[in-house]
Design brief:
Low-confidence stretches: none
Mean pLDDT: 91
Helix content: over 70%
Structural class: mainly alpha
Strand order of the largest sheet: 1-2
Distance between the termini: 16 Å
Length: 236
């Protein structure tokens, strides 16, 4: 059971690297449009509807439908396909999204240009919804931030090892997400819109981890599992 948890956490944290890259890429290349979440898009959908801008409304509506399609696909896929295939399919969709995004010109409407990302990140959200019993997204940070500091507060007050372990897990997700942001920032300085190709390297890491067996390659998983320290203390 411990080995399975360690592998899940390592894969989850490495997927957060790609999630951070996607978020940074969308914000910096597409007029501060966040392609990994629908909160702002839904607000602007209402605004464009009220202002009477049919063109903008339809583009926003299309983005919403892409996101919903990703959620529906990721919800039904495990029921129709072989168990355990959705994470592999999600990474494949992320790769395809990267290839499409690299081909979309900078002059295109920023929301329309992110349609592939809306679909891909919605699938990723459900395919990698958490690890080791924790509910955690790899494509945005709000809940991860809340869980991190809520568990830290509880640990400082009650000193329960489980709260420490939880805090380390969410801290690891936040750290990896923002390492992806930093990596994207440097890539954007050199390659601009084409820097999305650099995300393929990040997507290769969790893919390799899913294929590897932890029993044969334990050091690889310890490298990416930031909750290892807490687990070792618990087993001591």
């Amino acid at each position: 059971m411990y080995h399975k948890e360690s592998k899940e956490i390592a894969i989850h944290h490495t997927m957060a690297l790609a999630g951070g890259f996607f978020g940074m890429y969308a914000l910096m290349t597409r007029s501060s449009t966040f392609g990994s979440s629908e909160t702002s898009n839904l607000i602007f959908l209402v605004v464009t509807g009220l202002s009477g801008s049919l063109h903008s409304f339809l583009i926003r509506l299309g983005a919403l439908l892409c996101y919903i399609a990703g959620i529906v696909f990721a919800t039904l896929a495990p029921k129709l396909l072989k168990k355990g295939t959705l994470p592999f399919i999600s990474i494949g969709i992320d790769v395809l999204a990267c290839l499409l995004l690299a081909r979309i010109p900078e002059s295109m409407d920023p929301v329309l240009a992110l349609y592939p990302m809306f679909f891909a990140t919605a699938v990723q959200w459900l395919a990698f919804t958490g690890a080791a019993g924790y509910n955690s997204a790899t494509i945005f940070s709000t809940n991860n931030l809340r869980q991190c500091f809520a568990s830290l507060s509880e640990y400082l007050y009650e000193r329960k090892p489980e709260q420490k372990r939880k805090c380390i897990f969410y801290s690891g997700t936040l750290l990896c997400f923002h390492l992806g942001v930093v990596y994207c920032w440097f890539c954007l300085r050199f390659w601009g819109v084409q820097s999305i190709y650099a995300c393929l390297i990040l997507l290769a890491v969790p893919l390799v981890l899913m294929v590897l067996s932890e029993e044969r390659h334990p050091a690889v998983f310890r490298l990416f599992t930031l909750s290892q320290l807490s687990a070792n203390q618990k087993n001591a």
